[in-house]
Amino acid sequence: MTTTGSGIADASTRPWAPPDPAARHISDGINEPGAVVRALVLGGYGAVGARIVAQLRAGGDVAFAAGRDPARADRVVNLADPGTLGTAVADVDVVVNAAGVEDPAVAELITDHGAALVDITASSGYVAALERLDPPRPVLLSAGLAPGLTNLLAAAVHAAAPGPVDLAVCLGAGERHGAAAVAWSYGLLGHRFRDPGAGGQVRNYTQPQSFDLPGQGWRRLYRADFSDQHVLTRDLQVPVRTYFGLDSRLATAALAALTWIPGASSAPRGLHLPGSDRWLVLARGQDGTSRWASGRVESHATAVLAATAARAAAGLTAGVHHLHQVLTLADVPAGRGIHLQDGALR
Questions:
Q1: Domain 149-298+337-344 coded CATH 3.30.360
Q2: At the topology level of CATH, where does 21-143+301-331 sit?
Q3: Which of 143, 191, 210, 342 could form a disulfide with 309 if both were Cys (CB 3.0 to 4.6 A apart)?
């Protein structure tokens, strides 16, 4: 098996094909109309996890918030103690990892105990590690906003206009993001990754690209090591690049400056930046064909998508999957604060 610089399997070994609805269903009947999914959400009372629990319950499913705090958790789970996790997953169909813990051994334990796993990670190295597993139950990755919704947008653009795709991820600087998300964003500062299409090393928050973002006008966004571009370059077999920014131009410029300062990734993280809670993600083809989505509160959008992924994962066949391999934009729930649009942009 050949791999990209991230360790994700190369396109030549895993060609992409449009989602096959038949692949979603297995003999236990989960995912049939009216079926109820039993889910355990790791980090279930955190910034994103609590919203995932709420989304699952609102859809009629059974969801348990898992964590170390007995006062807030439906089921007490300490990921440092595998026994507590094994007990907690014994009677659930799917586990959603919203705890920010990136340990393939946890994924193995979950699937060995008979549950499917959904992980909202954006870390390319961790995604590569999970792809090397041979799980006896389904593992569904790229299950949030970015990666996740970005994967669906890119697949739709590529289907309409085959060719390279640029992804734009613009998040609200004013939103109170969870600790794991903040740590991940800061952790990219100063670090490099291999461009999955062109090869060569890319420093995070460099190599700006201009995007005409609906509602924001022209913006300069910067390369960042989201896992979506590695997986999509492989699956679509065209170069895919992800660019990141915040709705605050000042905050975005600050990231581009900090990435050159040694030790910036360890800087204090309690600073609340100016900006709103609005987010936008966009996929743009070479000819300008574009699909985009927008909304307010990124953690809410991630929860909507993760809950949708959890329902889909419970009925998948064993193995590692990504959201664009099993769902399309048509599967994104309507009326949940995710506004989908398409058009031609520069």
A1: yes
A2: Rossmann fold (3.40.50)
A3: 143
